[in-house]
């Protein structure tokens, strides 16, 4: 049973993703992204715009979702790391435009500066995680091609 092609493939995917996330760069990206999400969730109370309830709730929900996505909070679905990173990119972009899009007049200097900087950091970290997942996936496919060509 251990030599079944599906089990071997699942094991290889898990090992490749584990190696990608256990590198110092992968761990640093994951931790910084988690902290960015927690900051985004708490930012209305930290920077003092919690009275602007629509943006405060938006930042709270988007920050928690971002932290969960980037920390693997939806389970260790390693084969979905690339998709989760792109989802986090969308959340980072949303954070940047949220002061102008959410209901009410919430585009003050504090909210714009906070959301643009936090959203840009979140977007960069998510793009970094996506690139790392893509690189790990391409290394995996190259490794599989060489193992098939060597007769394994």
Would you give an account of this structure?
By secondary structure, the chain is mainly alpha-helical. It is built from five helices and no strands. Helix 2 packs antiparallel against helix 3 (53-71). The chain is elongated. It starts with a helix and ends with a helix.
Structural class: mainly alpha
Ends distance: 17 Å
Strand content bin? under 5%
Q: Residue share in helices? A: over 70%
Can you tell me the overall shape? elongated
Total helix count? Answer: 5
Largest sheet geometry: none
How many extended strands? 0
Question: H/E element string?
Answer: HHHHH
Radius of gyration: 19 Å
Task: Give the secondary structure arrangement, pairings included.
Elements: H1 5-21, H2 24-47, H3 53-71, H4 81-101, H5 109-149
Helix pairs in contact: 1-5, 2-3, 2-5, 3-4, 3-5, 4-5
What's this, in brief?
The chain is mainly α and 152 residues long.
Question: What are the salient characteristics of this protein?
Answer:
80% helix; 152 residues; mainly alpha
């Amino acid at each position: 049973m251990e030599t079944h092609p599906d089990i071997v493939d699942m094991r290889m995917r898990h090992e490749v993703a584990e190696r990608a996330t256990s590198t110092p760069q992968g761990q640093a990206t994951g931790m910084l992204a988690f902290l960015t999400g927690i900051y985004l969730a708490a930012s209305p109370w930290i920077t003092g715009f919690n009275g602007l309830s629509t943006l405060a709730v938006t930042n709270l929900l988007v920050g928690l979702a971002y932290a969960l996505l980037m920390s693997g909070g939806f389970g260790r679905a390693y084969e979905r790391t690339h998709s989760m990173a792109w989802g986090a990119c969308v959340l980072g972009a949303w954070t940047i435009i949220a002061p102008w899009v959410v209901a009410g007049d919430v585009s003050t200097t504090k909210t714009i500066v906070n959301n643009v900087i936090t959203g840009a950091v979140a977007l960069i970290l998510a793009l970094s995680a996506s690139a790392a997942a893509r690189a790990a996936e391409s290394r995996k496919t190259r490794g599989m091609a060489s193992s098939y060509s060597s007769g394994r």
